[in-house]
Amino acid sequence: MRKRFLFPLFFILLCSYLFLFPRPMSKEFIYQPVWSRDLHIASIQPIEGPVIDFRLGNFFGYVHEEGEISVLDRVTYDVVMDEERYINYSSVSDHHVFLDTTGQILMSVETRGYPILSSGRYFTLRGDMVSLSERDDEGELLWSRDFQSIITGLAVNKEFIALGFLDGDFLVLNSRGEIISDFQPAGSRIRVVYGVALSDDSRNAAIISGIGPQKLSILEQRNGTFIPIFNLELEDEFRRPVYLGFSDDGAFVGYETSGGIKYLDFSTGSLHAVEFPGDLLSVNFPGKGSLTMVVSRHNEWGTLQIFEPGGEYAINQDFLGSLIDLKRRGKTLYLGIDNRIERIDMVER
After folding, report:
1. Three-state SS for 10?
2. I need a surface site. Which of 45, 90, 262, 322 has the fewest CB within 10 A?
3. Angle, CA of 276, 308 and 261, to the nearest 5°
4. Other CB atoms within 10 Å distance of the CB of residue 91
5. 3-class DSSP state for residue 349?
6. In Å, how far are 4, 293, 316 from 1, measured between CA atoms?
């Protein structure tokens, strides 16, 4: 049974418990709190160095490994961030203004649409959702492409862009914006794509598509294109964008279900389930031999689950908080709840 704590007592009790009784997360690691910061009273120190981006509701920013807050600001309409830069943009704008992790302006790019920062790349999705372009680090246009249907899913790695569409089509583009793969999942009464994913190593792509039935399709890169190699008919039929993602090592693909998430082990073909109520907020999915971390929310309660794929839970903890963010950097976790950020280290025994 999961335990429940009231926030902000969650942080006090968690820190005290883990410090006095550090709990084994596996045979090799325990986890220990390092610091906790209240964003309502935190001082801003715009210093350079490695940072972790966070967003909690209408606020976002960057925190350093030792707990210094270098940027803390309110979201205008929406914000896109990576570990080097961010764009805090309005709903109607003809410029994307880039700022660094100390809040200093880097450049302003004249363009219309929604900015996307992913895998070190910068894209603009036009407001009508039927056009995508990519620019370089100086804001110069690399390519632009129009499509015949509304984009409903997008995934990026350093080599490719995967796109799903309202008409059920699935495309993979190379770094020049050229179409190298065009796949149309078949066998569903209604054709539509609800989720797409690319593995970091570019070996595989995945799609969740269709209604009546809804299907998971896995594709493999062969000879410069992506070929379907696996199809699974799903029990659920979502009519909204859904979570779909590969583990960092490419050994698993995970997807959202009505009661949690499931992940497919490519090496064995087996399916494993992680159950939780409510909405999926965050998944950190390194892969084989590593701990997977899932954050979900049900009404005013959040749940943090940490486990080894196919193994038992190391943590299955409820807490009171509606705004939640989880980031992982190596053996360090950064957990944000409402107005507070906590650093927790996984320490080798």
Report:
1. helix
2. 90
3. 30
4. 9
5. coil
6. 10, 18, 8
Q: Does the pLDDT of residue 41 top 80, yes or no?
A: yes
Distance CA 246, CA 261 (A): 13
Q: Which amino acid is at 55?
A: R
Report the C-alpha gap between 266 and 251 in whole angstroms.
Answer: 6
Task: Take residue 180 and report the two structure tokens written for it.
Answer: 């190298």
pLDDT (tens digit per residue) in 115-165 = 999 999 999 999 999 999 999 999 999 999 999 999 999 999 999 999 999
CA distances from residue 277 to 149, 292, 327, 346 in whole angstroms, order as listed: 34, 18, 21, 27
Closest CA to 61 of 339, 345, 346, 320: 339
The pTM score is: 0.87
As given in the structure block, the two tokens for residue 311 are 């193994």
Residues facing residue 170 across a β-bridge: 164, 183
What's at 16, amino acid-wise?
S
DSSP 161: E
